[in-house]
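Review form for a predicted model. The reviewer records the input and the model, then writes brief findings.
Reviewer: anonymous (R2)
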Amino acid sequence: MLLIGTSGWQYRDWRPGFYDAKLPQRLWLERYAEAFATVEVNNAFYRLPERSTFEGWRKRTPDDFRFAVKMSRYLTHIKRLREPAEPVARFLDRAAGLGDKLGPVLIQLPPTMRADPAALDETLGLFPRSVRVAVEPRHPSWWTDQVRDVLGAHGAALAWADRRGRPQSPLWVTAGWCYLRFHEGRANPWPRYGRKALESWLHRLPAGKEAYVYFNNDQHGAATADASALGRLAGRPATRTP
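Model under review:
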C-alpha cells in the first residue's frame, strides 16, 4: 500500500489551481484531505505546534487520514541529538493530539552532521515501538553497517530521498515499511518529475511493504501534480489521489 501526499498544504501558489481562488485558507486542510490520504507536516521542524493544534487537525480530517510529522530542529540542528530525552518527550506529548492519525515521525539530520551511531541509538530508544520513525541523514559518513544496524534494531526506516532523479542515500530497507521524499525533479516545468523518474521509484519500492511517499517540490503546484501522477501510475495499491 502506498500513502502518497505532499510536504505541507499551505502554499499560496497552489491557488488558483489546486485550491479554488475563492476557497478561504482556513478550509485548505479539508480540501487537501479530500484529495490525499496523508500529509507530511514540514513546518513542525521550524516551530513545533501546540497539542491543541494537532488536536484540531485530527478533528478536521477523515478517519483514514495520516499525518507524518517532521521532528523539531531544536533536537536535530541545535542539540544535534545531544540530550534528546526532553525534546523527544515534548514532541511526543504534543503530537499525541493527533491520536491514531499520527503516522511516521521524520528525523532529518543536518547535512554537516557526521555520523554518531550512539546518539542516534539513544534518540531512537526514546520512541515507543508504536510510533514509526524515519531518519534522513545527509552526511556520507552515515552510510555504514553500524548505522544500518542501529536503524534495524529500532525498526526505524531510512528515509529515501530523491533530488533531480538521483537517490541521495543507499536504498537500505531497515523496517517493515518505507519512507520516500521527492525534493526536486528534472522535468518541465521546474521542479516537476517526469513519468520515467516516477516509474523508476515505483520499481525500487519493496513489494508488499507499506510506503509513505511525499513530494517536497511545492513550488508552482508541482507537488500536488506529481503526487497525483504517481498515484495514477501506481494504480490500485495507492491510496486516494486526485
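Findings: Residues 108 and 136 are 5 Å apart (CA to CA).
Further findings: The helical segments are 28-35, 51-60, 73-78, 85-95, 117-124, 145-153, 195-204, 222-234.
Recommendation: see findings above.
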